[in-house]
Design the sequence.
């Protein structure tokens, strides 16, 4: 089984979803640094292409929600996007935060000893362009030990693995599947990320038994459920038993406390 980012020395990796996006504007330098400050080991980011094919770190297809610009990410040049404000929408304190390029994000995370989970967000007709550019960047930076590439599109991940065997991949799912371990093996996945509300201990056991790592993603909307449903106990049991190797959350501080079993504070 693949143990990323020195996992053998940690009971579970804490991953900030779009960085510590509960306390800073998502996918920005501030969110990445806050992930580290709150005990995170790895930062999940989203990557798309600008009109001139520069891989940039942003989640939404449209710029409207998280930047001072409007329209599709793929409709602007990098020279325009570089000037956008990507922090004020979250809080005035973050005015001046900007959209990051993938290359500078890799370099910064390496500098602060933060692992990266890079999620592909490109539309279908440009996905293979993004795949190729991402592999070129990972090769240039020799970042195969520092990064995992993730996607809901397991075919895309499998295609990238065929082009670059050193690549580590994570398939994302928000539903349960029959024979999930077999599906992961067909797609040559190293990890499967399962949404909290679809998590089942038997699936974690099956994946682990077949050499596939397991991540559990807990969105803030599920915080109030964690202490009131059996699934929360199952996730903790799986962490303690080594069946879940990564916990992904918008709130890195909350995830650290949850993984340690400290749920004394109300997070409803």
Sequence:
């Amino acid at each position: 089984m693949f143990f990323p980012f020195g996992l053998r020395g940690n009971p579970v990796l804490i991953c900030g979803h779009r960085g510590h996006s509960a306390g800073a504007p998502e996918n920005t330098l501030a969110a990445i640094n806050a992930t580290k400050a709150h005990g995170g080991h790895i930062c999940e980011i989203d990557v798309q292409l600008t009109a001139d094919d520069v891989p940039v770190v942003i989640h939404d297809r449209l710029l409207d929600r998280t930047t001072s610009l409007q329209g599709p990410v793929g409709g602007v040049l990098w020279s325009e996007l570089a000037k956008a404000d990507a922090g004020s929408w979250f809080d005035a304190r973050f005015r001046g935060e900007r959209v990051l390029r993938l290359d500078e994000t890799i370099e910064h995370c390496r500098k602060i000893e933060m692992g990266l989970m890079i999620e592909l967000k490109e539309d279908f007709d440009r996905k293979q362009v993004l795949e190729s550019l991402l592999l070129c960047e990972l090769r240039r930076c020799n970042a195969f030990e520092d990064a995992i590439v993730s996607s809901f599109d397991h075919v895309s991940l499998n295609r990238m693995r065929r082009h670059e065997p050193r690549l580590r991949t994570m398939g994302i799912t928000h539903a349960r599947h029959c024979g999930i371990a077999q599906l992961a093996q067909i797609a040559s996945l190293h990890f499967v990320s399962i949404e909290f509300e679809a998590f089942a201990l038997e699936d974690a056991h099956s994946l682990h038994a077949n050499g596939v790592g397991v991540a559990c993603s807990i969105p803030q909307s599920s915080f109030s459920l964690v202490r009131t449903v059996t699934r929360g106990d199952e996730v903790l049991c799986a962490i303690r038993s080594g069946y879940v190797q990564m916990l992904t959350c918008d709130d890195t501080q909350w995830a650290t406390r949850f993984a340690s079993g400290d749920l004394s504070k109300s997070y409803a």
Summary: The two ends are 36 Å apart (CA to CA). Residues 264-268 have pLDDT under 50 and may be disordered.
